[in-house]
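Our working data are protein records whose layout never changes between entries. Getting from the letters to the tokens is the skill we practise here. To make this concrete, we reproduce a full record directly below:
***
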Amino acid sequence: MPRLADHISTVPMSGIRRLFEVALRMDDVTVLAVGEPDVAVAPHIAAAACAAWERDDTDYAPNGGIAKLRSAITEKLQRDNHFHADVEQVWVTVGATQALYQAMTLLLGVGEEILVPDPGYTTFTMNARMIGAIPVPYPLRPETHHGTGPRGAHNLSHADHPNDSPQSFLPDLTQLERLVTERTRAIILNSPSNPLGVVYPRAMIERLVDFAARHDLWIISDEVYEYFTYGRDHVSPASIDTDDRVFSVYSLSKTYAMTGVRVGYLVTPKGLGATMSTVQEAAISCVAVPDQYAGLAAITGPQDAVTSASDKYRANLNAATALLDSRGIGYARPQGAFYLWVDISYASEGDVAGWAEKFLLDTRIAVAPGSAFGRSGEGWIRVCVAVDRDDLMRGLAALPAP
């Protein structure tokens, strides 16, 4: 039997998916491990997809997407992200996952390097390895506070550390400078962050864009959770960039609770229309047309469901952090997304993946081990709060107290 390509063996398995597969084989599991909103898709979005099927609008679409959707995205970018993009720069993709992969295939050759956040979303590393590139982690660490939780430097949950205090888990520019080599081609930025819930302030985005310019790096900006921020403004790097080095990645999955519909989009620098048409044709040809009409309805239709979902997630976060505070369990206070990054190091004994699996088997509660997001995640777990409130509170109540 012929062998697979050598680089395929370097692609890491998703630690989240591994634990989720175990949970799927069990009964009565409370799943807090995956980022799956439990709210229903808005009726007008479902109706738009159904209407496309009913009128048999099921033929091939242009590689970049149907014209109305691409145009609507440019208007959204101008209104909400504060930068202008021509239609030629907007490419509808199979979720943000394909958009990330597509950007990396354009920017990275075999053996070339990309700086990825650690902790960071698992696909960043997986995608780089899939194309034979080398992901180089840049650690995101908590600042030194004086909390009373089990790991004082990580306990950001107490009243003496309000939301307007200096943020934690931000990139260290000095360390980034040390990581750049002659093979470095790009850096991934993720704000609001999955799994950390950090929202980068404008000043930090400005410094990162300047850093990329000084080293002539591309920027891939993952902005999937752009509409879920709590008391902080989301800043798109492309709104600051002045020399066309940013690839911006967006998704409708989390915003509109349509994760299985798989609609996202990639916004490229100018002048890549012909190239993008070629790579889209090679990768997917086009996104399913009924799904694109669902996306068009989502972007141009009523946004009440997004506001309602954001309010729900924020209320869940408030209830969850109050419970963790009462139990003396440390966590990073999120400014965005819909996750809690919880310190369980006092119980995990240096193997949080093993601890999370045992916790699942013992309690039938699934949480994501922090090590799935990189080496810096050891001792932490990620908990999704976009779930039923009772399930969330029951899951957090089952965590061992320090």
In short: The longest strand covers residues 184-190. The first helix runs from residue 15 to 24. The radius of gyration is 21 Å. The chain has 13 helices and 13 strands.
